[in-house]
Amino acid sequence: MDMSLGDFKYFFMAAETCNLSRAAERLGVGQPTVSQAIKRLESVFRTPLFDRFKTGVQLTPAGKQLYTQARVALDDLEKLKEAVISANFEIEGRYSIGCHTSVALNVLPQFLPSLLKQNHKLEIQLFHALSREITEKVISFGADFGIVVNPVHHPDLVIKKLCTDNVTYWIAPEGDVNTLIYDPNLAQSQFVISKTSAKHWHFSRRIESTSLEVIAKLTAEGCGVGLLPERVARRIKRLKPFKTNVPRHEDQLCLIYRADRHKSASARTIIDSILSAKIK
Radius of gyration (Cα) for the chain, nearest Å? Predict the structure, then answer.
């Protein structure tokens, strides 16, 4: 026979009033309800909890032991309940956000300083990787949030568009037009280069780098034509679009997180802070 937390409520009142009828009256229920609750507890603990008399009831030694320990346990349970409810409304905790380094330099300053300033108990862990790797981590519960480029759609994933960007060729004045500087690991680079080859336009030399910031710097120094997102290229005033009507790839920068997580006030605060930032 199963017991419930409600059974203890009737048990406590019976112990305190020493009378089942009085306990029922105070609780606004019938006496059978109180009696049945006590019988369920006695069945679970396999011992009488009350000695019954014509004038009322008294706790047995086992009943006194249960009364003392159950009161402590239920008080602890109430504290746990309050802590859980509080955690859902207080802005605190540790959350991870993944983004590519070039995305981090452009996007994080738009929301992170004010988010941390307004929420002193919030801790943010940053990690940097390619967008597809970050997306996989979010899907597999390895990260809380991702700010990624062109995320793949997944049934468990929430995708919120932040802004658009274009990946194309950039050059500095008097830059080397025969040398391409690019990141071969980016799908956008591969797309633009394939479109360029289809136009029978080739570079005689290539420099590869996994850092868009390095590519932008080398391009600014005239080492070659940089294949860059506009948001990265625009940070360096010397860089201009290489040519008109050259191939380009449109990117969508998005916030991603799992649909079945992050319903707490802390998570919602992070999401709202990112979505409300003026990201370009």
Answer: 33
Beta bridge partners of 258: 157
With contact defined as beta carbons under 8 Å apart, do 49 and 42 qualify? yes
In three-state form (DSSP H/G/I as H, E/B as E, the rest C), the secondary structure along 230-268 is HHHHCCCCCCEECCCCCCCEEEEEEEEEECCCCCCHHHH
The helix (run of H) or strand (run of E) holding residue 91 is none
pTM above 0.90, yes or no: no
Distances (CA, A) of 276 to 4, 14, 121, 160: 46, 56, 21, 11
Pairing of strands 179-182, 145-149: unpaired
Q: Which domains does the chain carry?
A: 5-89 (1.10.10.10), 98-280 (3.40.190.290)
Tens digits of residue pLDDT in 132-174: 999 999 999 999 999 999 998 998 899 999 999 999 999 999 9
Chain segment 92-131, per-residue pLDDT in tens: 889 999 999 989 988 999 999 999 999 988 999 999 999 9
